[in-house]
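[Meeting: bench + compute handoff]

Bench side (C.D.) handed over the final construct sequence. Compute side (W.E.) agreed to return the predicted structure before the next meeting so the bench team could plan truncations. Sequence as handed over:
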Amino acid sequence: MGDKTLKCKDCGVDFIFTEGEQAFYKEKGFENEPQRCPECRRARKQQRMNGGNRGPRF
């Protein structure tokens, strides 16, 4: 397998998707690689936990 260098779709920084993370994703059945770096993932998760900027829910 080996580590992969990916580019964050939010901030554009390169980040490493380690072999261990790849194994974890595979074990969980995730089919897609992460699109955001760990910092952007954390920020996005925090935003969702704080209600984010969603419109009305129907």
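W.E. noted at the follow-up: The mean pLDDT is 91. C.D. will use this when planning the next construct.
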